[in-house]
Amino acid sequence: MCILQCKLYNYKMDGYIKLELENLAHQIKYLAALEALTVTKVKEEVNKKYNKKDSNRNLSNKFRNKTIRVSEIAEILDILNYELYVHKK
Question: Any alpha helices (H) in the chain, and if so which ranges?
């Protein structure tokens, strides 16, 4: 199970939220909104910081097709100032 630190969210569990594959795009969008950012702006910041040239459409397709890599999620969370944790069930 992947979790990230968060203080406000419907899936809150002891200061953490559970990222769910089915709702991952919505959860990332929600976290971006908490930081007053759009997913487009987050992607621009990821591209700038990590010297990438991925498009927003490409990111959207990865969410829809469930092909996004953990490293890409970690980059997005870094821009949003969250950390990714993994722990055993």
Answer: 24-34, 39-49, 56-65, 70-79
